[in-house]
Amino acid sequence: MPRLHLFDLDGTLLHGTAAPVEISHRLGLDAEIAELERDFVAQHIDPPRYAVRVRALWADLTEAHVTAAFEGAPWLSGIRETWAEIREGGDYCAVISLSPSFFVERLLGWGAHAAYGSRFPSVPFTEPVNPAGILDAAAKVKIADRLCEEFGVGRSDCIAYGDSLSDVELFGAVPVSVAVNADQRLVGLATHSYVGRDLRKAYELVCRAR
Predict the structure, then answer these.
(1) Domain 4-15+75-209 class, CATH top level
(2) Where are the beta strands (DSSP E) in 52-172?
């Protein structure tokens, strides 16, 4: 039976940062996004409210900014190689993130079978954010279930990779999980833990345990 590998983005595939932070840096809005991130991590604002505020912050955002943020971000090493190995072995890999879909979906070009993020308006923005399209922790589980149906696997065939409390529900829904440079609260819930900057090493933990 093939397996489905489910990867978080912020703090997991991206080392020590998040897509909104990298995008904001390109706009010279480091202080503003740091304040917004603090409010979000402290749960003073929920994902839809965060999205509304970050969309306002990015009023001047262009595709060139997004491209620069994506290409200049501190990605873990070995992402493409890991996903190529997953594909070659007959398994599936997908990314599920609360970050904007216009950033997350670029990972399809790196070999992910699927990539889901919060639905923002097209860049440059001319429309408001629709809160219904903004993902939260529970949405990660719902999307995972849809992907299971699409790929013909069950939750029992899934492996989740994540780093923060937004991954708790998904970690609880699947039998195998890898905490990657993670919050200690998540490490305690994971079946494996990895600290470092090479995704191949995190993937090896799952391979050895198979």
Answers:
(1) alpha beta
(2) 92-100, 114-118, 158-162
